[in-house]
Each structure stands twice: as C-alpha cells, then as structure tokens.
C-alpha cells in the first residue's frame, strides 16, 4: 500500500500525457449526444462514479444517475436506454454484476463505455468504448492508485466531451507529489491524535463528497474503524444529533462552492465538541483541531488530490493500531457480486 500510494504522481502525469486516447472516446460520445447518463460501479469505483455524476451534471448539463445493478441482475429489469450513455467503472473489470449491467444496457440501446484498469477484462470487450486508466497492476487490497487514476480518467473524458483540453490537470502529477510530500508531517500528527478513536464521521459537499465516502471506506477496511460518510447537508438533517466529544470528524474542504458550504456544518459539529480534522485546499480556513492543506486546483479537480493524504492516514492508523493494511481481514482484491 505504501509503494502504490507513492506511485500516484507518476501515474497521474502519465495519464495526462496519454489523454489523446481518452479524447477519442470523448469524440465518439459527442458525436451521438446522450439525453441522460448512467453510471454503474461498486466499492471505491462507486465513489469515482459519484464524482463523475457531479462532473456530468455540472460540466455537461446532463441529468445523471447511479445504476442499481440488482435491478438488472436480480429483478431482470430491462429499461429503454436509447440515447442514454452508460459508463461502467470497475478497477478490475471482474465484477459479474457490472458485466451483466453493461451487456444488458447495450442490448437496450445505450452507448456503453467501460472505464477500467484491466484492458484484458470481459468488461472492456462488452462495452462499445473503453478507457484504460493506466495505473499498472495493483497488489494492495485497498485501492489507492487505481482510484485516483480512475478519477482523473473520468475527468479527462468528461472534460473532453465538453471540448476541453485538460488544461486544469496539466500539472496534476507535480501537484500530487507536492500533496504527498507536504502532508507527511500533518498525517503523522493525525495518526498520533486519532489512533485510539472509536468513531469517525467523514463529511464533505459537492465534488468532494466522493472523497468523504472513499475516506470512510479506507478507514473501515484498513483500520477497522466504525466510520460513516455524509454529505454535509445530510449530516445537518439529523445525524449531527449523534455527534459529541467522543466523535472524530474528517472534513474534506477544498476551495470552491462545496468547501464553502462546509462552514456551517463544521460550526455545528464544533458546538457539540467533536474533534475535527480538515483536509483540502481550504483546510486552514475552517475550524478544526488539525488541518492538512492540499494545493489549490479547479474545484472539480480537487478530489484527485484530496484523497492522497486520506490514503496515508488510513495506512498510518492501520499500522498504529496493530493492523496489516495489505491483508485486511475478510477481504480480497477482487470482490465478485451479483
């Protein structure tokens, strides 16, 4: 896990260099403009799909939704998907339910795109179009480099559909290296502070909500922490009542509308005595016990960088709590569901 976290700056830079391959897929999508977009995924890829949902709705102005695979696999639903874009996101390309969803959607008239780190997978051949996230083989059970590469690949795809050139991610590899190097000391302090935590909430708004969900998953699967992730808005709609002095809150707050909307949320949890760690380019602007700053980017790109310190935090907490992040109990690298 340590080695694969450290590979990410080079992987992200390489993906930008090969964005021409992604632009070809984008041109095919733009040639047949969809009226709606659907995204199918599981696990960490589901968080990447949620990120893409925001990108599609905000940058392309299209309605977008997340597929419930069981509607196809368990209940046999076959909706009319003419003029619909289906993007299936799977790091391994090995989940039977996503394969079935993709095959079914194609038969029902959807334009299907597979986004995966495994070009040899059946998912790649099942879809009409495919995007290779080019992260290289990932050995750690906890996805790190495949997650950030998937985020960047989805951004490059959607940006290219709208006619963009990827300008906002031109230096993403360098920014990722600065993020990892610059957050090392802060992560050390956070590990010391939260190694005995019993309950953690992760929260964010907008594009960064995907990062909060991924943070929750990483802490649960590597450190066995009881974690929950909420949109900051949803947190205020009820769950904030359970926040007290025994609660650690990981708040993802990058500059932009989503990060600004977290001010009210953090004020509310601070009133209840929560111990707050803020991560992001707006981290130091927010109330909290600890702050881990991330280089500023366009808001829609921030999730690619925000998650890097979170990965290091999950790794550090796992080791500090006596765990083995490369062998989390009960987990395998590829989870096959239907």
From TrEMBL:
GO terms for molecular function: carbohydrate derivative binding. Keywords: Repeat. One of its GO terms (biological process) is pteridine-containing compound metabolic process. Residues 234-338 form the Pterin-binding domain. Residues 25-167, 190-328 form the SIS domain. InterPro entries: GlmS/AgaS_SIS, GlmS/FrlB_SIS, Pterin-binding_dom, SIS_dom, SIS_dom_sf. PANTHER family: AMINOTRANSFERASE-RELATED (PTHR10937:SF8), GLUCOSAMINE--FRUCTOSE-6-PHOSPHATE AMINOTRANSFERASE, ISOMERIZING (PTHR10937). This is Glucosamine-6-phosphate deaminase. It comes from Prauserella flavalba. The lineage of its organism: Bacteria, Bacillati, Actinomycetota, Actinomycetes, Pseudonocardiales.
């Amino acid at each position: 896990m340590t080695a694969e976290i450290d590979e990410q700056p080079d992987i992200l830079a390489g993906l930008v260099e090969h964005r021409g391959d992604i632009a070809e897929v984008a041109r095919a999508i733009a040639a047949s403009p969809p009226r709606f977009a659907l995204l199918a995924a599981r696990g960490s890829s589901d968080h990447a799909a949620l990120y893409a949902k925001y990108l599609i709705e905000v940058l392309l102005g299209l309605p977008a939704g997340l597929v419930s695979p069981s509607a196809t696999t368990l209940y046999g639903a076959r909706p009319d998907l003419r003029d619909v874009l289906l993007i299936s996101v799977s790091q391994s390309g090995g989940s039977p339910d996503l394969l079935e969803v993709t095959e079914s959607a194609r038969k029902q008239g959807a334009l299907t795109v597979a986004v995966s780190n495994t070009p040899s997978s059946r998912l790649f051949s099942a879809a009409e179009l495919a995007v290779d996230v080019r992260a290289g083989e990932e050995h750690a059970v906890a996805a790190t480099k495949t997650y950030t590469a998937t985020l960047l690949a989805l951004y490059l795809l959607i940006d290219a559909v709208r006619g963009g050139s990827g300008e906002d991610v031109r230096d993403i590899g360098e920014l990722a290296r600065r993020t990892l190097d610059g957050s090392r000391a802060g992560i050390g302090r956070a590990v010391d502070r939260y190694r005995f935590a019993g309950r953690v909430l992760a929260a964010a708004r907008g594009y960064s909500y995907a990062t909060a969900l991924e943070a929750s998953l990483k802490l649960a699967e590597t450190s066995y922490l009881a974690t929950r992730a909420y949109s900051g808005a949803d947190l205020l709609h009820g769950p904030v009542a359970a926040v007290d002095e025994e609660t650690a809150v990981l708040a993802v707050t990058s500059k932009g509308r989503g990060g600004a909307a977290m001010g009210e949320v953090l004020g509310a949890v601070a009133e209840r005595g929560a111990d707050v760690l803020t991560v992001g380019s707006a981290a130091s602007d927010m109330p909290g016990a600890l702050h881990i700053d991330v280089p500023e980017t366009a808001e829609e790109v921030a999730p690619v960088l925000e998650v890097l310190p979170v990965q290091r935090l999950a790794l550090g907490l796992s080791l500090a709590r006596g765990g083995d992040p490369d062998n989390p109990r009960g987990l395998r690298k590829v989870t096959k569901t239907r």
